[in-house]
Amino acid sequence: MAKKIVSYILSFLCVGCVVTSILFFIVTHTILDRSYVEEQLEKINYYEQLEKTIQEGFGNHIVQSGMDESVFDGIYSKEKIRGDMKCILDVIYDHQTCNIDTTSIYQKLDENISHYILNKNIHLTLTLKEQIESFKNTIIETYKNSVLYSMRTVDGLGKVIYKVKQIIPLLQCIIYSLPFVIIISLIIINRKSISRVMHYMSIILFASGGICFVADLYNIISLKIEDTIILNDNISIFLQVVIKDILTKLNIVGFVSILLALLMTILSVIMDKEPVFKKS
Asked: Is residue 140 within 8 Å of 76, Cβ to Cβ?
């Protein structure tokens, strides 16, 4: 009886360890992996959507300026957006510094406005000059806010990820080792009955797989991540895709775990009918 109680306790402890290992593996190979993030950004056409957001932001200020959208022609390129996003990812994943350089945007915008004023024969007063300067600064801030959102947020995220990456090797050793230690303990305790060992293994696999399924089911019923807005629309869409991908991976792992649990259960029943070890 004591062996059974200890075995069940170890089994449920192992469930927690296995689920933690699964989550740890998925997280380290998704949101903590820069190449994965870059792949997802391409997948959802993030850069194209960001360009539309920038244009919409510019458009919100053009009417009050009295000019038309021609002043925005060629002030930045898609390569500029990609370069700035790379700079942001450098901060988040490589613990580097980043400065979004808007000098070229400012210069091109200034050039376009000068041509516009010249073509329209607009007389420049001191007040108008101040308004134009304010308009240019607003456009620069709009670009920065669209691409970067918040340097403070990016820096904070970069510091967190840097600290996490420092302890990942240690966490890997602990998190991945614990399930094996517990399973070996179960084998030692139940060494006289392979069927009993397989019974406990089936409990571990079934419970772990069930938890993975419940996580995905909870998302479907309650989270409604399609309606969730985090920071801004573009970042929200990216996070929605990543969360869905993680939940899909959990779903697959859960399905495979439950199949293995059923197989273990069948084998343990068969072995119970034909015991391998007999008392001497």
From this structure: no
